[in-house]
Amino acid sequence: MLINIRTSEANKQVVQDLSRKVFPGASENYISRVALAYSLSRGAKLDLEKDLLDGKGKEYKDDILFGNYRTFYIAMICQHYGIYKSDANIGKYVKMHVDHGLSLMNKIFEESKNYTGLDFILEQVEQGIDLLSESEFTNDAIIFDEKTRGLRVKNKEYYLGPIDIRVGESFEGEEIFFKMNNSSIHNNAHVAVAGNSGTGKTYFANSVLKQIVKESGGKVNFIFLDFKGLSEEDEKKNADFFESTKCELIKAPHKAFPVNPISFIDNVNEKNRIMGINKLVDIICSQTNLGKIQQQTLKDSIKDAFAESKGGQFPTFKVILEKVKEREGAKVSSLREILEGLAELDLFANTTDSNNEFLNKNYYLSLSGDLSKNIRFTSVFLIINYIYNTFMNMEKAPIEGDFQGMRYVLLIDEAHTIFKEKKSQDLLEKILREIRSQGVSVMLLSQGIEEFNQPSFDFSSMCETAFLFDIKDKVNLKLMQKFMGVGDKDAMRLKSSMEKIQKYQLVSNLKEFKVGELFKA
Question: Residue 119: which residues within 8 A CB-CB, separation 6 or more?
């Protein structure tokens, strides 16, 4: 049975436009193959009566459309609709999904003018790879049917107006603004900030957060994750920041963080629950030296804790600790030590519910240096992972006109501590790449710039906007260029600025100002 199709008339031009953006110079049959697969991946079940469009657009013959992969595409259609390969309507199903996929993809590119074909391909490939891995938890892993999803995730309100942040002024008195959610200027709202201690980096970050809250009328919330801990003196200095942003200070372990981070796991679908448990185990083990036997003990104990949870509730670390004790007996172990730190220090609220309401408030989480490194890192990654999965299960934040809807800012201070571990890098890279469409901005603060450029990934390349204060390695022009995304054209200006830079002064790659030009924060 030959399957020759014509796209709808409305998609005739779309085929040409998308081909230029995604596969420049290649045959136009590639984009329709991608559109077919993309539509099926969204899980859409199309209706032959309602969704079959006209056939006045681009024509594809059977061998041109499918190439050498005809069998695979037909198999996907049959699997999706539960039909046999000889079904007379297969051609119609193919046409519907090609048209549907083209429309979906076209909408994505229309809504974000700076979104590239490479961005799209990389995001889809990454999601596909994640789904093949039982040990890796993905956003798709906790998406169930709409009824169940509604019980788990409550969409956070977004702000669709302009958020223009005053970041400083030139030496001539010109005010400089960062239009963070203007999609005609910026592809994402991620920000990288580097500077030595005492250069004004933290004050600058606080000012940015204050303005975001003010400009959005409080609709955009934030969490400030502080690894080093906030001293009493620093707390007094930041009193105005806490008051003006209505930010709640949580000094761990003296006050519990108001969320159960285990509640990112799907407690309804068994396969998804196993994947979520694997992810939880992976987070805990990434910061400890647990052996294979202890890892299995932890995994089995979490499964036991979930098995005893009733009515859609989630276990707590205290419950998991008790299950580990039952399995290990009275012996002392590194597994018990990490769980006792998480459970008995009450770092997290001992609620059995999922709590998404904390995303509608502003928090500063200060992790005391008295806490062990394992406890601090594990706690932070549990929170980051919870935030990531919660937002990835919400509807995408829309773009209206030039403005990307904004919901949240995740600020990580002393971020260079994250870059050292490969598993930590993987999580951060995933967040930076995927969470931007959910209206979330990630701000990374670090003392230097060399930590951003890891052998496996350049994190600064995912943060479109970079601000650079005085740093120790300011003589390394190539490294500064890489951090800032600055070409040779602006390199000499950058070099000259960094040679003269003083406290509370900085350079940036802002498109709203001169790249590499020195200005006052």
Answer: 187
Q: Domain locations in the chain?
A: 5-111, 164-259+357-465, 262-344
Distance between CA atoms of residues 33 and 291, nearest Å: 45
Q: Which fold has domain 164-259+357-465?
A: Rossmann fold (3.40.50)
What contacts 254, CB < 8 A, 6 or more positions away? Answer: 368
Q: Which tokens belong to 9?
A: 């008339």
Report in angstroms the alpha-carbon separations of 472 from 96, 105, 225, 479: 58, 45, 24, 12
Indicate the SS3 state at residue 481: helix
Distance CA 151, CA 102 (A): 31
User: What's the CA gap between 60 and 88, in Å, rounded?
Assistant: 18
Angle in degrees, CA 120, 125, 127, rounded to 5: 100
Q: Which amino acid is at 109?
A: F
Verify cis geometry, omega within 30 degrees of 0, for the bond prior to 253: yes
Span 23-57, pLDDT tens digits: 888 888 889 999 998 888 877 788 898 899 999 99
Architecture in CATH of 5-111: Orthogonal Bundle (1.10)
Quick one: CA dihedral 470, 475, 477, 479, positive or negative? Answer: negative
Residue 284 pLDDT exceeds 70: yes
Dist CA 208 CA 219 (whole Å) = 15
CA distance 82 to 18: 31
Locate 79 and state its tokens.
């699997």
CA distance 221 to 217: 10
- Tens-place pLDDT, residues 110-164: 876 677 888 787 777 766 655 544 333 333 333 333 333 333 456 788 999 999 9
Whether residue 171 contacts residue 518, with contact meaning beta carbons closer than 8 Å, is answered with yes
Nearest to 262 by CA among 310, 219, 301, 314: 314
Q: Are 414 and 228 in contact (CB under 8 A)?
A: yes
Q: What is the separation of C-alpha 310 from the centre of its chain, rounded to a whole number of angstroms?
A: 31
Nearest to 386 by CA among 160, 252, 210, 225: 225
